[in-house]
Amino acid sequence: MAPPVPTVAATALTSAAETVPAPAAAAADGIAAVSGTPVLWLCALGVFAVIFVQTFIYMRAARVAGPDVGMSRDELRNAYRAGAVASIGPSLAVVLVAVALLALFGAPAVLVRIGLIGSASTEVASAGVAAGTVGATLGGDGYTPSVFALAFVAMSLSGGMWMLATLVLTPLLKRGGKKLDAVNPAVMAVVPAAALLGAFAMLTVTELPKSGIHAATALTSAAVMAGCLVLARALKAAWLKEWALGFAVITALAVAYLAHTA
Questions:
Q1: Do 150 and 134 meet the contact criterion of CB atoms below 8 Å apart?
Q2: Are 125 and 161 in contact (CB under 8 A)?
Q3: Where is the chain membrane-spanning (predicted)?
């Protein structure tokens, strides 16, 4: 079964291309004046600095804990390489969506919101609801610098509440997981994978009925992913498994672009 991640990434691009409006010229000039202020750039750079430090700490912790769980240095090195290669495709999709949003929110806001969260549909929905509360349309009539500030605050609060919910609920779920593991360890081995597949499957299924382009993009990504995995097994090419996700995402993005411009 092909993982649905490339499907979600590619169809997110097609959805963003269809739903993200472009601001009027006069509004765009006013928004550009406030969306690129030094304060916002400093905040964006601060967020990325925290992400880089966090990444370094995680990699160092994995290198220290590896021998205790039976992982050699070569296995850790392979895990780092597989993670880096697998991130290329999804990261490319996020970058393309971020470029589409630059005119709407400006570079610092896009770097922080899309670069950190990676969900254009969630961020645009939060900004659209905020703009609607003052009678404005996102990127349309009434989209002034003040409305941009309101939308940016709404996006930030949305992401903050998501992090707060994660902070509160994670310890509770961890406690429940330990109790379930004590009763039936086999269930805990299946539940995380099933939850992940279910979540991405639901995201994919909701994209399919939107248009023929969405369906074609989903089927293309699934076919490429399945083909790469079959070839990797037949040829015993481990590197192809690492690159399969990237190939599937890039191919699906190309199909979505060609279908939109045809």
A1: yes
A2: no
A3: 38-58, 79-105, 147-170, 182-205, 211-231, 243-260
Rounded to an integer, what distance in angstroms lies between the CA atom of residue 218 and that of residue 205? 9
Angstrom distance (rounded) from CA 189 to CA 177:
11
Helix (H, G, I), strand (E, B) or coil at 1: coil
Sign of the alpha-carbon dihedral angle for 154, 156, 158, 161: negative
Residue type, 15: S
Tokens of 95: 């970058």
Out of 48-52, 111-115, 167-171, least confident range: 111-115
Residue 3 has pLDDT above 60, yes or no: no
- CA–CA separation, 63 and 57 (whole Å): 10
Count the neighbouring beta carbons within 10 Å of the beta carbon of residue 240: 18
Give the whole-angstrom CA distance, residue 232 versus residue 226.
10
What integer best gives the mean pLDDT of the chain?
80
> What pLDDT is attached to residue 231?
93
Cβ neighbors of 163 (< 8 A, separation 6 or more) are: none
- Determine contact, residues 101/21, Cβ cutoff 8 Å: no
Contact indicator for 246, 81 with CB cutoff of 8 Å: no
pLDDT of residue 5: 47
